[in-house]
Structure formats: C-alpha cells, structure tokens
Amino acid sequence: MRRYKDQLGYASPLKHALPAFRSRDGQLRLAQEVGDTIDRGGLLVAEAATGIGKSLAYLVPAALSGRRVVVTTSTKALQGQLLNEDLPLARQATGLDITAAVVKGRSNYVCRLQRAFAQQRVPAEYQHELVRLDEWLIRTREGDRDELPFVPHEAVWRELSVGPDRCRGARCAERDGCYAELARERATGCQIVLVNHALYLADLALRTARGGEPVILPEHDVLIVDEAHDFEKIAAESLGARVSAPALSRFARDVDSACAAVAKIPPAADLALLQVHGDRLFNALPEGRRVRLDEQRLRLLPRDAADAMRAALDAIGERIKEHSDECEALARQAQRQAYALEAILAPDHEETVVWSERDARGGVELRAAPTVVGPMLREHLWDRLHAGILVSATLADGDGLAGICRRLGADTAATHIEPSPFDIAANARLYVPADIEGGGRTDPERVATRIAALIEAAGGRALVLSPSLARLRQLHLMVRDRVSYPLLCQGEAARDVLLERFRNDETSVLFASMTFWQGVDIPGRSLELVILESLPFAVPDDPLIAAKSERAERDGGSGFRDVALPHAALLLKQGFGRLLRSETDRGVVAVLDSRLVTKTYGSELRASLPDVPFTASLDEVRAFLAD
Question: What CATH number labels 424-626?
Fold first, then answer.
C-alpha cells in the first residue's frame, strides 16, 4: 500500500490540488481501503461522511490500479461532478492522463434516423422546438439531451430518440454517426467509465442473458458504486417488470407509423384487440395512487383480458417483424411486453411483490419487483467481479453496515466507516420542538407558524423538506404570506433551475419533497437552516416496504424494527446531510417531529445522526442563528 500513501500523503500533488482541504487523514484512510480492495480483490462497503472527499479517495486508487473501472451513481449531478471537477483533480494528484467517459442510455441521445421522420410525427404546436433542435444539432458533437439549452416537450423528444426496444442496431443506415454508439466507442478506450445505476443494472441483465457477453458497457472487472444507498431500490426496479396503459398506446402509435413509413398495412385488428383488452385489464385495477395486489386481488383481475393482450402482442410481432428494421425492433418490444404481463400476473417467486400505480395525469401501470435482491446481485455481479467498492455518505444504521451488506448480498465484504471531519458540535444544532408531532398529527396552522418563525430567524436561507408532496404544497401556501423572503416550491420549475435560483439568492427558501432529500449540495450562506417537516417513514402504500416487513415478520423479526426503522434512519441521515457541506458551513437542522425524542425508537434514529447538540428551545435556535 506504499504507493497509495506516496500519492495521497501530505507531500503529494493532492495537497496542491486542494489546498484548503483539511480531512487529509480521513481521505487517505479511505483511499488505502479502496486501493487494498482493488489490489487483493473482493468487496468493500464504506460510509464516508460529507467532507471526506470520497470521490478522490476512490478515483486515485482506481487510476493507479491500471484496470478499467466502471463508476456508477444514482444522480446526474454526481456524474457531472466526477467528470468535470474530481477527475481533473485526480489527474493532478497522480500525474496520470486518466481517460474517462460518461455512458447513458440510448434514449438520452438524439437519433439521427428518427429526426428524419420527426416532422410528420411531432404535433403542430411543438414544431417550433424542432427548429431550435436543428440549430443545436449543427453544433453538438455528442447529441446528449442534457446539452440542450432548453427542455424539449416529451412529445418532441419521444420522436427524436429511441430506447433499446426500437434501435435498429448494426443494420441502421445512420450507425456510423450514431451519438449513442459514439459514446460507447469512447468508453471502450477509457480507463474510467461513468454510468448511472439503472443503466448498469440493465447492462447486467443483458449480459446475464447472453452468457456474460458485453452489451452496453465495455469489459471491466472493477466496479465502484457511489451513492450506494440507492442501489438496492434501483436493483429491485431493474430486475422487475412493468406494463402501462400509456406505454401500450405509444407502442400502437409506433407500429402504425413504422408500417406507414414502408407502405405496409398495419395490423389494425390486433392493435384494436390490444387496446380493448388493455382497457379491460387496466380499468379493473383498484383505485388509488399505489395499491399492492396480493394473491386474492390478482385472482380478481380479468385473466382472459391479459391472455388476449398477450395473444394480440404475439400476433402483432409476427405480422410486422419482416416489414423493416424498425418493425422488427417493435416486434421484439411486443415480445417483451408479453413476457412482462406474464411475469406480473403469474409471478414465479414468492418474494415478488405486485402493485398498480397511477400518476397525476391518470396513467396507470402494473408493476412487479423482487423484495430481495441480495442473492441475485451476489450470483450475477459480485461473484463475477475482481473487486467491488460500495460507498456513500449514508449507509450505516443502528447496527452499523451489517444491514446494507446483507441486503445487497455483500455479506463477505470488508467494511469501513469514516466519520465527519467537520466540527459539528460547534457548527450545528438539532432542534426538535416538544409541541409538534409529525406525520400530520399536529394542526397544520401550528406547523406553518413554526416554519415561518424559523425562516425569519435564519434570514431565509432555508430548505424545507417533507416526505409528502401534498403536505409540502399545503405548508408552502400557508407560509408564503407570513415571511418576508422569496419562497420557491418544487413543481414551479425544473429541479436544476430551482436549485440554481436557490443558490444564487442567499435569502431564498426552497420547499421540496423526497426528490430533494439527497443529491443537493448547497455550501455556504445560501443554506443555514434545514427543516424536516416530519420523520421520513415510508408511506403506508409503499409495496416494497410492506412486502419486506411481512417477510421480516415471517422470519420471526419485526417489520417495523427490521425494515421501516432502518429505512427511516438512513433517510433522516440524508436529510441532515444537506446542512454541512464544507468546513465553514454553520446552521440548524429542525426536525418538526417530537417522536424523535418521545418515542422509544427515537434514540435509534438519533443514533444514526452525527453527535450534534440538541435543543427544544426556539429561542436557543434564534440565538445560535443570530450569532
């Protein structure tokens, strides 16, 4: 391990790359653990608190190893930080020309072939966007949607991109200039490949089905999973199945368009049958935003409708597959939809949970996902890698890292926890009022009044987080006329736009829900108060949490203690982590939920947080913020 110390020690180039960095020892310890794991092989599960510099702590050993390394994250923000900020620093620290590339799913890139037909397919009211897109296409080298200077309407982008279901692959006339293929070719020659969890797991599923043959990502034997706290959830979604009414409607439109493009008669009768029986199946689903479908509810669904849908999908695929390359891709999509229907309505594993879900626009879908992903990850991923590193700022619960290791199938992993380098006792306070109980149990008027008082005490500079979007919007409306600072609310603009406004106006206040609970980095005076409106227990209709709780009960444990409580503890830690992002940050985390103190499980939740001074006095909060 001498070489890692030489590269990361006090005399290394890293000192000059980050002259204000004060957590050198913690970063060095983590880098040594990562480097040792890559050297010897095996798994490492590590929690590294904000401020340690975990990105450099794994990028530098990865670069020194000489191996190709894939780094997967759950957020685009971290991918951008790794590529544009951390990798240049790693190059400085090591003196190596570290090559790197970002790979995204096909639907993130404009398809040159699709653009040729978009004029006829895009609704008239969005044609002006095509003009702006053409101006961008003249300049772009990568064709990545995230490079666009505006956010195109979904109806436009759907006609300009293709997913793996509709890609013509090697037979595409535009393959040589394909932006998605060019991105993958760049990655093939790079040492560090950056992807997101969903794409990595999709690639894993395809590799497994094809006997390990590379599909999307290049060959690699070292994987680093950053933001590993999300990996279990995204693995369950990726290994599951879904069929939705909107997706089937889009499929039918695509079949019509593809047949028209080659002057073939579409299978109208079979498409009509798919629509009729799809309506029967989806209309039979229970009302509610998210409803778990147990065995009894599954039996009540019209299985003859599902059988007729599968028959129609099979017939459509057979009748169009030889018309054109696009029709052949749609035929494969029809086959996958038929398989998904079978997997959802006749699950072959007792650890599969099935549910229906409705969005705000009335779209409904059927979904299924495994409640346990550890054994599958161990068999198809960890056992096939030379080394795997799983790291996050929030992994440990009251039992340390044992729970996350078990759930991810990494029982044999070495573990490491690196605590915060910040002086939390001096720079932060935890405020928990005794007269407000979360979960909607306290009069909203009292909650809104307290939020307004806290905002005034902080001079704005606040992030208000709620597990419930509906509750959040209600509180935003109640607070906005009580404070003298600009208020922003989730839904008013795109996520990145809201965060930019929040950063730029130091006195602004942002109201947001769970999508802002992690991955938000606002160092400095723009954020000195984080208000958690309630403890982040999973909503009662979360089917995966409910199914995992039942499994824990069957195994002789407790659904609340073994599932719901650790889940809430990790989310609470993530919410707390929004406050201190640098050594000079200072502020208050207000948890407006007395259960954190009054309930017996409160001590377990507090144990997941840093050792921060606690107060129940609003006057003490005012004094601390005014200091």
Answer: 3.40.50.300
At residue 593, the 3 state secondary structure works out as coil
Nearest to 463 by CA among 471, 451, 445, 447: 451
- Beta carbons within 8 Å of 244's beta carbon, 6+ residues apart: 363, 364, 365, 366
- The closest alpha carbon to 537, from 557, 566, 576, 562, belongs to 566
Q: How many Å apart are CA 360 and CA 475, to the nearest integer?
A: 20
Q: In 76-112, which positions are buried (b, 16+ CB within 10 angstroms) versus exposed (e)?
A: bbbbeebbeebbebbbebbeeebbbbbbbbbbbbbbb
458 alpha-carbon distance from chain centroid: 31
Pairing relationship of beta strands 364-370 and 352-358 according to DSSP bridges: antiparallel
Helix (H) or strand (E) holding 131, with range, is helix 127-139
**Residues 40-85: tens digit of each pLDDT:** 999 999 999 888 889 999 999 999 998 999 999 987 778 888 888 8
Task: Please identify which residue in the block is written with the tokens 């951008």.
Answer: 80
Do the domains 2-99+190-234+389-418 and 424-626 sit in the same CATH topology, yes or no?
yes
Segment holding 101, helix H or strand E:
strand 100-102
Grouping H, G, I as helix, E, B as strand and the rest as coil, residue 193 is strand
Q: Residue 212: which pLDDT band, with cuts at 50, 70 and 90?
A: low
Fold of 2-99+190-234+389-418: Rossmann fold (3.40.50)
Domain ranges of the chain: 2-99+190-234+389-418, 106-180, 244-287+297-346, 424-626
